[in-house]
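Let us work through a complete example step by step.
Step 1: write down the sequence.
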Amino acid sequence: MDLLAKAAELIAVPSTADRPEELARALELVLDTVGPGFTVERFVSRGKPSALVGPPGPRPVFRILLNAHLDVVPADAYEARFDGDRLYGRGAQDMKIAALVMADVFRELAPTLPYPLGLQLVTDEEVGGHDGTAHQIDAGVSADFVVIGEQSALRVVTDSKGLCQVRLRATGTAAHAAYPWLGDNALVTMVGAVQALLRRYPVPAVEKWATTVNVSRIETANQAVNQVPADATAWLDIRFPPEDTDFNGRTPHEIVAYLRSVTGVAAEIDSLGPPHHADPDGGDVARLRAAARRAGFSGDLLRKHGAADGRFYHARGVDAVIFGPGGDGQHGPHEYADLTTVTPYRNALVWYLTAVAASRE
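Step 2: predict the structure and record it as tokens.
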């Protein structure tokens, strides 16, 4: 119940990318859960705070690193609501409860384990992760294995899609709307460009391990209804599996050229991250799956369509998996955490970390 009360308090913090003071407040709330007796390293990159908690003394290469993000996407309201076995609120499932569970498990076990356990708390995963996890890795933070507490209903995610966030740009010629033949409508050009890309990557009717394109925004500087727009920009979020070699393994320059060949308009990349993979037959994955089964869950392997910070570790040759509690509705108005999974999730983490210690004896 103490953890749920803390979760409600944390969910009430509007820790979005445009509120640096609230990102810092969320970080301090979780660090307060950890308590004293540990080394806390603080990082800041482009206004995004993060922290690394470890055993007293110089920073080690962690045997296991628990990773959690405390930022959320914007919402109309930031408040927690309990309804039976569900806790509703922005960030309830993604991933504030998991962050508190990880902090609590770290506090309890880190002083007793025969290996260095770390807790990595970041506040920018929802906007790319470059100023949190990636920034800390660039500063020398490393581990043998990383567990990221994103939602998974106690399944173990060893594969995630890559991420490519793109802006398409079309230019035209302004004219009076009564004489459209005198102009060149950039919005019409952009609509055609987006449709061409969606023909190449149609939205699946059901879940499918394939490249997807989400059209997040189409905009123009034009403000007059009686004017032909001379510019248009489309914001796209593209997720791709490793099998799609038009994106995977390509440089930004190559991807820009490819998108131009498909759409006929200029493109620029805002963010690019490769797919993530961890060895499904590795010892840590096996122990984590066994812990999930002991907690009453399947421990199945899972592939995720969303990107996570594990891709930064994968790029450095470090296996990282997603392993978190259950829930649904992430990034939506009805997001909730399944409270029946919280205690099993905590138990599974404890059993897994203990099993790692036993494997060293």
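Step 3: interpret the result. The longest strand covers residues 162-171.
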